[in-house]
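Structure first, sequence second, as always.
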């Protein structure tokens, strides 16, 4: 029969096991063939005798080029497109396992792979994955292809190497070469029908497309796709979509910020999506969706701050409770925005606490350097507004040194109390301060510069005239100097008295600071911060679901065994030798 491998019946010899008629033999180069020839000959140049019990070519598998190193062969055949597609599809198993076991850890593991796939994503690769994953009648797949601009590609394409269903319908008998009646094999090949794709895979591919659109600066397409994915997630009620939904809402808000008109314009899309985010927050609270709840609260605070809606941001913070077991990155963002709100509201002590916690919780990876720089800049300004001088070691960090240089000059001007240098620093770096969003807060430092200058003079002189204070601080008149000195004395900035008749300020003797409660209070604050960090770390730990039930079952079985053992001992069925040693009664 054609297509069958010939076999020997003991009379007719068979050569090469039917290899002669095969056309798909992959031949190697001349050097490879020479190496193979040497490997298949003995020292005398003769081929070794065939194994006993088998004829040559009978039952032997012929593999060409077996001596070629596998690493070199694989390196020559690696296709970056196929490799990226395989890496993307490898996450589908994690998502399916997360949906089957109801365990969010597998979804988080798939989300972590986005950072490694990000630089390799292209529209062709994403479209290739979609066409091989979804069936031909999938509406979500068509929406994803439309976002990539590949809506004309057919769906349901068979991946390379997939198994095929072979249908062999019966037909009329036809004579063979030897006159023996047979059956004409009419082979019809059809692809294996694709199974339904779970929503987790659909949303995951959508997130990859959002990442690609954001990197390629296609804001309008990304905004439209994010809106479609958000509506789809809102219609589904699946807890395994929580981590994916948080990422979708993040890109939804991010694309809206970059569409014209930009915030703080009241016509900005940021204002339009606020009701959508509030509805998503309400739904997340009802469903106890911690990931989406934390992400949406942070996005709402960001939107309110971008449009200078401080009152609405304060109401949101007062009427909502940020989840305690949220991800560390979301907690750091929430503390940063909360610190910015409190700084604008002149609550510098609370702002300093929130910003300090945000900088401590900031990730140490190089990709999160931008957040550390932004939070540290705002923290330095708040410390200056509180009357403190930041430590010089902060400006010596390699990741922050260049970004904090304008703030270093600002701290130097405030520390010395030189009003002229302070105004020159603001004028020279006004664009940087506006970009960082700290310009309005820095303008408040003028009074602090004056107070610092007065404090320095009160420590240097036991008595100084108001005229000298006016000259040193570049003030307009002695009345202004008198007003500023009186306010500094009332606020407790300096320990001095003001003699208005003679026109001078007299400083008091400064006592030992270690005799006061200030060092103890500072030490207590550091201990409280360390304990709070420990408690939050314990709360953030993740454990397998229903693990306590397994431990409870094991404990019950152990108690049952102990009861049976005690009963057997009382009945005399067990002795010390059976227990493996001495046993002192129950």
């Amino acid at each position: 029969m054609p297509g069958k491998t010939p076999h020997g019946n003991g009379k007719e010899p068979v050569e090469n096991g039917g290899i002669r008629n095969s056309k798909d033999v992959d031949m190697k180069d001349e050097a490879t063939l020479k190496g193979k020839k040497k490997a298949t000959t003995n020292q005398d140049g003769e081929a070794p005798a065939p194994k006993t019990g088998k004829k040559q070519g009978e039952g032997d598998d012929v593999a060409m080029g077996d001596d070629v190193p596998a690493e070199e062969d694989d390196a020559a055949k690696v296709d970056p497109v196929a490799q990226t597609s395989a890496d993307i599809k490898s996450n589908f198993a994690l998502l399916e396992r997360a949906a089957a076991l109801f365990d969010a850890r597998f979804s988080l593991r798939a989300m972590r792979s986005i950072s490694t796939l990000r630089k390799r994503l292209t529209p062709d690769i994403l479209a290739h994955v979609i066409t091989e994953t979804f069936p031909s009648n999938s509406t979500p797949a068509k929406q994803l292809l439309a976002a990539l601009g590949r809506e004309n590609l057919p769906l349901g394409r068979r991946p390379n190497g997939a198994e095929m269903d072979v249908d062999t319908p019966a037909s009329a008998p036809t004579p063979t070469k030897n006159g023996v009646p047979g059956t004409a094999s009419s082979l019809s090949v059809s692809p294996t029908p694709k199974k339904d794709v779970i929503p987790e895979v659909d949303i995951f591919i959508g997130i990859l497309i959002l990442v690609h659109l954001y990197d390629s600066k296609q804001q309008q397409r990304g905004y439209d796709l994010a809106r479609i994915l958000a509506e789809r997630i809102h219609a589904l009620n699946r807890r395994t979509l929580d981590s994916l939904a948080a990422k979708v809402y993040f890109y939804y808000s991010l694309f809206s910020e970059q569409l014209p008109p930009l915030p703080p314009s009241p016509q900005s899309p940021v204002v339009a999506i606020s009701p959508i985010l509030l509805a998503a927050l309400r739904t997340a609270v009802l469903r106890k969706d911690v990931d989406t709840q934390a992400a949406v609260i942070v996005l709402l605070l960001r939107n309110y701050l971008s449009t200078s809606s401080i009152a609405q941001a304060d109401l949101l913070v007062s009427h909502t409770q940020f989840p305690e077991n949220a991800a560390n990155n979301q907690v750091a963002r929430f503390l940063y925005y909360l610190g910015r709100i409190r700084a604008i509201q002149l609550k510098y002590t609370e702002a300093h606490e929130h910003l300090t916690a945000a900088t401590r919780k900031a990730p140490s990876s190089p990709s999160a350097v931008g957040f550390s720089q932004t939070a540290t800049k705002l923290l330095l300004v708040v410390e200056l507004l509180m009357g403190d001088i930041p430590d010089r070691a902060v400006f010596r960090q390699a990741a922050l040194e260049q970004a904090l240089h304008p703030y270093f000059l600002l701290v130097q001007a405030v520390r010395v109390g030189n009003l002229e240098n302070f105004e020159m620093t603001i004028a020279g770096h006004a664009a940087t301060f506006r970009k960082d969003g700290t310009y309005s807060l820095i303008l408040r430092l003028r009074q602090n510069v004056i107070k610092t200058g007065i404090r320095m003079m009160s420590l240097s002189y036991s008595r100084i005239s108001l005229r000298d204070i006016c000259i040193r601080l570049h003030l307009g008149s002695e009345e202004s100097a008198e007003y500023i000195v009186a306010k500094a004395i009332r606020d407790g900035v300096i320990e001095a008295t003001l003699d208005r008749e003679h026109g001078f300020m007299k400083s008091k003797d400064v006592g030992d600071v270690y005799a006061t409660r200030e060092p103890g209070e500072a030490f207590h604050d550091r201990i409280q911060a360390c304990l709070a960090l420990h408690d939050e770390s314990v709360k953030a730990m993740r454990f397998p679901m229903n693990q306590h039930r397994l431990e409870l079952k094991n404990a019950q079985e152990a108690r049952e065994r102990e009861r049976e053992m005690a009963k057997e001992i009382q009945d005399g069925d067990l002795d010390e030798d059976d227990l493996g040693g001495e046993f002192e009664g129950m």
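Margin note: Residues 1-66, 161-191, 581-586 have pLDDT under 50 and may be disordered.
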